[in-house]
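Standup notes
- DV: blocked on the single-chain target, sequence here:
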Amino acid sequence: MSRIRLLPEILASQVAAGEVVERPASVVKELVENSIDAGARRIEVVVQRGGISLIRVVDDGCGMERDDALLSLERHATSKIRTSADLAAIATLGFRGEALPSIASVSRFRLTTREADAMAGTEIIVAGGRIETVRDGGEAPGTQVEVRSIFYNLPARRKFLRSENTESRNIEHQLHLQAIGHPEIAFVFLRDDRIVFQLPAAATLRERIRDLHGRELVERLLAVEEASSHGKMRIRGLIGQAGMSRPSRVQQLVFVNGRAIESPVLTAALREGYHTALMKGQFPVTFLFLDLDPAAVDVNVHPAKREVRFRDPAAVREAVVETIRRTLESGRRDWQQQFQKPSAPESTPADLALPATGPVPSAPDAGQNSLPERRDDLADRPYLVPRPQFEPALRPSDVGGEVRGLAPNQDGLGVAIAGQQFQIIGILNKLYVLMENQNGLVLVDQHAAHERILFEELRRRMEEQGVPSQRLLLAQTFELAPRDAEWVERNVATLQKMGIGIEAFGENAFKIDSLPTFLDVSDPVAFMRKVIDGLKSASNGSSPLRLGEEMIAKTVCRHAVKANDPLGYLEVEKLISDLLECELPYCCPHGRPTMIQISLSELEKKFGRKV
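- DV (later): unblocked, structure below
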């Protein structure tokens, strides 16, 4: 007796539905994507009890005639592709022909559709995959799909659904993705007869995000600077300013050809593009759109179409990293402008001073390249770049004259920084420099600011002059997996540029005899495995010092001025001036902000001067 049998059609549809219909949010996703492909300009979604009781999606798209409506409920019936060549260049959101029959097989299903020029439409009622009724319908042009009692015939699946509130939140998130991906379409979402949101068609992505997330978020987003050097690839959208982050990826949204996707390639590219502009463990806020040749991306990886594969992932990654860096650079210019004042005196009057922060340090000779006395311990740090090459960022001799203490100002006047559009007011808690500009009050964290200055200075010197290395007392050997070993053999020059002395030591084995001097490594082998994993995931255009930057950041953190370290006026002036010249002046190497602006309008609200 044969043990292999063909599954009944209905059972096969229910098995397939397990991949497409995971929960009510999956149903909403598939139906809304069909509406978008049908050219809808307005989509209304109604749910009851988290979609468990009812999901209704109504659109004003092209609609279908009766034969097409019936055929749409057959498995693998679609209007999106015709040949295998079409499968290699998908330009629509749907294409597999699985959504409607899968949904209909696990619910009580009703479809009504009508073409714009048709006298009457079509109504089809399906229960558990069996067509029960086909008749004329009188609905408005477009398509309406009702899904009731989802998984009523699959109790094992139904019991795995979450609470009604959780399922509703998942549906709302899915609609947010579709609304952001297609701002030109109006969306309405009703939950249990209550309007959750009603979004009109938006002219721009910024308007749609403002409608969904509010003006405060939009004001902190940077428009992506598009580049023309990526061939057929176009990158656009909005990303958060440096230092703006979230503890999860909930607002890290990426769209490929209008489809919201999840991709390790793009996640790594975003992280690398932001680099030290993000705190560790935080994620950027992005609304990023990649438009590329459909033939260059494979969306037929999973029935749910959440994952994609790129034909040239390295090129995509490089393009995203470059775009993020360029956009943050433009944000740097805007950031500097917001902290500028229209006019400022070119010199500092000797009789103007600020609240005292500590004893007045003595001025060094003009020819000396030394740190103020409180930081002379740098000379005892042999693992830094040799002293003549690593000059401190804060040197009173660079700005000339005597370093004055910040003494009380009888006239109540501020002091303008020479060449910069600020006026220093004082120092709060021996840590925060208070300044005034045309927009209001500016607070500077002296430690974070000095960290950024030292970090970029040390990194630049190492990139130009190479990384000084120190030989290990005992060479270490280790083995790698064949694929990792092959990668190391191809990148020995890169590792040596990082100051790592490494060479082959047998098949799939290597020897380390030196490491960068600024690294404090207790286990060289474990460190090397981490470096190799990191370099393998880094883009080709990354500096070879990227893997050591975490240690560089820790090093400069020890040398930067601390809280309670007294600074004279000229030192503060030099600190702010050097900070504004940095590549990423708005945050320290750990991603914390260096400056905070408190606007005049915020102050007026605090004091009740305005509502």
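- Follow-up: The radius of gyration is 31 Å.
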